[in-house]
Design a protein that fits this description.
With about 190 residues, the chain is an alpha+beta fold. Helix content is about 20%, strand content about 30%. The longest helix is centred in the middle third of the chain and has 15 residues. About 35% of the residues are buried. It comes from Microbacterium azadirachtae.
Length: about 190
């Protein structure tokens, strides 16, 4: 972990609050090493939807990075920035939906709004990928994947932003809010970075 709280302890308090969050039972969230060089202070979380005994998920995964820079970079418009990532495999016919990328982005914005996670300067990409196996991978057939990469500057409490990100990871994996213990249909192989 790359967490070096400033003298005022603001980052240390924020990190402690994020570490104390509890997420739905079918999304396993853990702290991972934060990327270095992006900000003086950083905390990173990883999420896997219904992972198997090896920790791998066929349903979806995500990353959440909280960055803190007391110098308030102009591009951030404040001392905090969140960088988030979520991906999930899809059925090929869903992957061809021309509105899929727009829907994925709207789910992020809706999740932030439903949690009261106020923010500004949101940006990102929503990518859908279609694949077809050949040779030794031909038996795997066709596949599709949705991936969302986003960043935004949070205002107000930080915990709702992590909760919204976890909700997004679940939504992309086919788990709408309140759907714990409901079967996920159509899980495909997951392509990881």
């Amino acid at each position: 972990m790359s967490a070096h709280p400033g003298p005022d302890g603001v980052f240390a308090l924020a990190a402690e609050q994020l570490r104390a969050l509890r997420f739905r039972d079918d999304i396993v969230v853990r702290e991972i090493p934060a990327p270095s060089g992006l900000a003086p202070d950083a905390l990173a979380l990883a999420a896997d939807v219904r992972p198997d005994e090896n920790g791998d998920s066929l349903y979806g995964t995500g990353r959440f990075v909280l960055l803190h820079d007391p110098a308030e970079p102009d591009a951030w418009g404040g001392p905090w920035r969140i960088v988030a990532f979520a991906q999930a495999p899809l059925e090929p016919e869903i992957g061809t939906d021309p509105l899929l990328a727009d829907v994925a982005w709207s789910w992020l914005i809706d999740a932030l709004g439903s949690r009261g996670a106020t923010h500004h300067s949101a940006s990102g990409t929503s990518t859908k990928t279609l694949s077809k196996g050949f040779g030794g991978l031909a038996a795997e057939g066709d596949g599709a994947q949705i991936e969302l990469r986003a960043s935004w500057s949070p205002t107000g409490p930080l915990a709702p932003h992590a909760e919204a990100w976890a909700e997004l990871v679940g939504m992309l994996a086919g788990l709408p809010p309140g759907s714990e213990d409901i079967a996920v249909f159509g899980a495909r192989r997951t392509i990881r970075d």
